[in-house]
């Protein structure tokens, strides 16, 4: 099975697994340096657009991404060639980081507008709405504070505590890092679906055959649904996944202009 691995896929697997071992067991402090942070965070460094894709949150995060590369990568490398499969992986990974950073900047701008609105006109209603939108960051005791603030809306001490809460939540969100090669992997998935649309794949869960184009369509629709649903407690960077799909599709569309046969 491993003898069928193509050179670029094998090297990407070895490098990514090796980096995970180093950051998980030998030098865990490197993860906070190489993960991708919001561009206005004090922890942001430009090279993170590249390095974040070699970081992973845990073993299962690593396994899912590397398993996808292991399954779909070799055939794509044989079809596209080593140069193009490497371009696909890197461009989709870096591009996903860039687009996700733009999306994060938009979300942070919305958050800053809500905080500014409270500063301009402090009220229990605005604070309560902020808590509802960001409830996964607050502890249960915040509702006792909301009750006290609602009964004393002019209390300067309570207003100050509310401001401190808002700024604290902002600081948390500014410094949430993104890690993983999922954007790059989704580029590989869309490339496989476009180049081998009718190839039969056998799923493990549920155990059934499915054509590659339908599997990619499912992933795309689910990713779009997750973005629109905007579950506050969901820590998966779905927008990065969607970015990988879009960038990968664009690359394959550009490359396939000179080809006539697909499988």
Q: How would you explain this protein's 3D organization?
A:
- Keywords: Hydrolase, Membrane, Transmembrane, Transmembrane helix.
- GO terms for molecular function: serine-type endopeptidase activity.
- It holds the Pfam family Rhomboid.
- The chain is mainly α.
- The protein has two domains: 2-105 and 178-258, Rhomboid-like fold (Up-down Bundle), CATH 1.20.1540.10; 111-174, no CATH class.
- It is 68% helix and 2% strand.
- The protein has eleven helices and two strands; from the N terminus they run αααααααααββαα.
- It has helices at 7-26, 29-34, 48-51, 59-80, 82-120, 124-133, 142-151, 156-174, 182-195, 212-229, 238-255, and strands spanning 200-202, 209-211.
- Strands 1-2 form a two-stranded antiparallel ribbon.
- A hairpin with a 6-residue loop joins strand 1 and strand 2 (209-211).
- Helix 4 (59-80) runs parallel beside helix 9 and helix 9 (182-195) runs antiparallel to helix 10.
- The longest helix is centred in the middle third of the chain and has 39 residues, at 82-120.
Tag the structure with descriptive keywords.
263 residues; 11 helices; 68% helix; hydrolase; Peptidase_S54_rhomboid_dom; serine-type endopeptidase activity
What is the structure about, briefly put?
This protein has 263 residues and is mostly helical. The protein has helices spanning 7-26, 29-34, 48-51, 59-80, 82-120, 124-133, 142-151, 156-174, 182-195, 212-229, 238-255; strands spanning 200-202, 209-211.
